[in-house]
Amino acid sequence: MNQFDKTNISDPFVSKNTIEPYSPGELNGLSFAVKDNIDVANEITGYGSPGWINTHSEPVVNAICLEQLLNAGGKFQGKTKSDELAYSLIGVNSFYGTPLNPKAPDRVPGGSSSGSASAVASGLADFAIGTDTGGSIRVPASNCGVWGYRPSHGAISVSGVLALAPSFDTVGILAQTGKILEKVMQVLLAENSNGSNAFSSVCFVDDVFQMSDRQILDKITPSLNKISDICKVQTLKLAEITDPHVNCNWLFEQLGFLLSTEIWNTFGAWIKNEKPELSSGVEYNLHGYAESANRKVIQSSLCAKKAFQNKISNFLCGGKILCFPTTVDLAPRLDEITPDFLAGEYIPRAMGVNAISSLSCTPQITIPVAEANGVPVGLSFISGYGQDMSLISFCNQLNT
Hints:
Helices cover 39% and strands 17% of the residues. With 400 residues, it is of the alpha/beta class. The protein folds into 2 domains: 9-189, Amidase signature (AS) enzymes (Alpha-Beta Complex), CATH 3.90.1300.10; 201-364 and 371-399, Amidase signature (AS) enzymes, CATH 3.90.1300. An 11-stranded mixed beta sheet has the order 2-4-3-6-8-7-12-13-11-9-10, sandwiched between helices. A two-stranded parallel sheet has the order 1-5. Pfam families: Amidase.
């Protein structure tokens, strides 16, 4: 299959084997789907890859997050498509097609939780579970005009979830509304919402605003004005929040190197021993970036990650929230997705912004706030580690 076949728009589901709720609970009446890197008993977890399917067997039990949702009254609608090996932010899979972006049909849905975002935006599920390593919940949520949530790292169980880069991998949620997102968070975090605003101020991250497309900035201005009306606000650069050398390009370099190292640790032996079928793009990325990453400098990058995490935590511990556009570019058009485009600046720009949460291990929620020429635009909020339920309460209050 041609990786860049623009007509290959596909159904968001890999399978539609439903499971009824185990018992009534907080999610009564809500339907959901899970990304195809999350185990469903007796179905091969495909990982968006025929090579993976051909070399792995069916799991015998459900992932813990799936069990939690079924026990809370949610109805399972099926498994959704993913980018191949969850190794992209675009949403184009050369083997299984590109799930529709129903809010902007000529645009990509974003990845790698592409099918999950598409299913929610299409109204085929009230919410969906995906994974986020370097932006794979947040980017498709913004592109498809739905709510998206990356938790405090480690807050939601990843038992039964296939690994990509384990020290960055998280289970995340895509939802039609903030209220639905809040209910699902309560179940997966096993934590009640306090409904209160525990935050003292909002900080606009100037680096991200300066990078953003003018169309995005124009459309989010009313939301920023609303925040300014009801909250104490300030505008700071990342260098002022953390250290003088920190900007989005530096964050991309640190995240990109650490992800590449872990991704090869995850897949290297499998690739060498099994020689699985891979698309040309994923094969190039695995060998050209992941395998070739210089392991001799990993200690310095790990130290840089820890220092950044500490600086962000210290800044946020006083009840502050960071706010910025979820993506600095509109969702790319399907006809833009070429090898040259993928080698360009879109992915480094998107990853640099998403690296704020990924490297600091903090929770991030993206809200659909506007459309620019018919393309959804998301606005993101980051709070201190462990303040996930307070953050969703704040976002829901803001959205009223």
